[in-house]
Amino acid sequence: MPDPSDNAGCSDPPRGRLTARLKRLAGELGFGLSGVCPAVRPPGVDHLDDWLQAGYAGQMDYLADRRHAYEHPTHVLDGCRSVMMLAMAYRTEEPRPPGPGQGRVSRYAWGDADYHDLIRARLHQLADAMRAEHPEAQTRCVVDTAPLLERDFAQMAGLGWIGKNTLLLNKPQGSWFFLSALLTDVELEYDLPTSSSHCGTCTACLDACPTDAFPRPGVLDASRCISYLTIELRDQAPAELRPGMGDWLFGCDVCQDVCPWNRRSPESPLPSFTPRPDSNPMDLAPLFELDDAAFRRRFRKTPLWRAHRRGLLRSAAVVLGNTRPSGGIDILATGLRDEEPLVRGASVWALGQYGCVRSLELVRSLADQEADPGVQEEIRAVLAESC
User: Fold this and answer.
1) Is pLDDT at 113 greater than 90 in this prediction?
2) Number of helices followed by number of strands (H, E) in the chain
3) Which residues participate in catalysis according to the annotation?
4) For a disulfide at 156, which of 15, 37, 134, 239, Cβ 3.0-4.6 Å?
5) Could you please report the per-residue DSSP string of 347-370?
6) Structural domain includes residue 248
7) Same structural domain for residues 148 and 19?
């Protein structure tokens, strides 16, 4: 079978017309960037091996479990020949600073819909348009969940370059966008890859990271990243990283906020990304009043659902411990009574950050009745620090 990459940058009238129609439709559907590249082994696979071996994936074992699938897009779609990469902007208004008892939420989670569902529906419209001309075409829509190195393919499709913060950057668009892909066994017309970086000597993203999550430019230690600590991690964040988490409740935007290429990035025209009134900053006290059913009702169709109730309340407790608002002790006292050990343990740590007579009395009152080993460890650490 011929190597599809041999056609990169070449023009074939039928392929070119179909590709142009798909790109035009993509623009109408809200994708600000689109490009096509051949289905080949991505260059980042070897870096992925090094990254996994270094332990930078933290608890994200699924990445190693399906490592083989990242080798080639044919492991995602049998017979895949073309990868159409798309970017959809999600930047809206500028974030408001949190007040006492509030936490920051990453921009991508402000809207009233889960971006996976929104983008997947639009990718299916692209797939339908392709099958209107190629009824036998096989397609697969990928939104952040399949074993595909999206940034590698986006760079190969000419959408931008991979920055020092490991995100894809585009001169006019910056990095405030979601990447997605449409895989097909139809050979399309391929774009030329982005061949150079435009980060220069800038290290703003590396210097600004609160938890020093970049061991070197272009490499992220996810186990130290605030987004990982507040979303993916299922245990307590390491004690030495908690102060660096600051007031981030869900996700983190620091390395994007400081990037010069994001100064003029466009706002999304899609109403689905318009911030909900309570999305950012988010009041923390009401979160501790949510049981599982209420949490589901409030967050089921938003990205915050991924953190689960216990993970979001754990992070809320860490924010309270870092910011120590007046009234925070009463909120954390509720956390001490939570059925989830993860929430109780984080609440113990946060009360220890207050370090006052009342907060320490609450911790001591829990010591004799707490049965969970992890929470007991948090209690011992707080009481030892108070001596």
Assistant:
1) no
2) 14, 9
3) 144
4) 37
5) HHHHHHHH-SHHHHHHHHHHHTT-
6) no
7) yes
